[in-house]
Amino acid sequence: MILLDENTKAVVQGITGKQGSFHTKNMVECGTNIVAGVTPGKGGMELYEIPIYDTVLEAVKKHDANASIIFVPAPFVKDAAYEAIDAGIKLVIIITEHVPVNDAIDIISYAKSNNVHVIGPNTPGMASPKVGKLGIIPMNVIKEGKIGMVSRSGTLTYEIANELSNNGFGQSSCIGIGGDPVIGLSYIEILEMFENDPDTDAVVMIGEIGGSNEEIAAEYVKTMKKPVIAYIAGQTAPEGKTMGHAGAIIEKGVGTAESKMKTLEQAGAFVVRTISEIPKVLKEVL
């Protein structure tokens, strides 16, 4: 498994908000080690027996926390992320969508200069079946196994995880990198982690139209020893039309499903056109 493992001690920033409290309950119920919550002004309270602090620094000092998951409104995400990084947190997951692009650029630049991994913004987070989840991935579709998953799309992550689980392929870890134009950890960085992870036998990579993230990742796929099965969403989207995610605008010949699929195929990935093909291909390659 990668990123979220048995050494993870997580803090929830915005734990007392509607989203924060709802998803914290789910995370705790599936066994995730949530050691503290942070909401300024609510220090001293508890939620689901989790102590709440006014600052991330207090949570780090008291509980040796090393990961943070952020459920705060978009205008406050930058402050929350900087606070986590300054407190010594090494993994920051930003669930919030509509984070201003300039803020996302600043957060990711600041994180890199402090050797901090950022997942998101606009991500469903991550799940490692053995230890739980940090985010909003429904654990009923996930099961323990040896397939690594990396995806830009939240909904497709759940759909494909469910397809794999129903066909006997559990997951080592499932990572949503986020659907925004500017995100933290890229496909390449996650693929490299899976390539070096002894718990992972193959990787399912889920892309979508727009941008060039998948084409860039293809360069790394060429070097991988583990099989990569790739699925690109948006195969029927017309050029020049913005689709869904902020990152999904197709320019002439770049960012289309076809260009991504072709590049990944040339790099040695097993490219499928439908979700139901993924378990079939896994049966062949493993």
UniProtKB/TrEMBL annotation:
The active site is at H245. Coiled coil: none annotated. Keywords: Ligase, Nucleotide-binding, Tricarboxylic acid cycle. CoA binds at T16, G17, K18, Q19, K42, I95, T96, E97. SMART domains: CoA_binding. It catalyses: GTP + succinate + CoA = succinyl-CoA + GDP + phosphate; acetate + ATP + CoA = acetyl-CoA + ADP + phosphate; succinate + ATP + CoA = succinyl-CoA + ADP + phosphate. This is Succinate--CoA ligase [ADP-forming] subunit alpha. The gene is sucD.
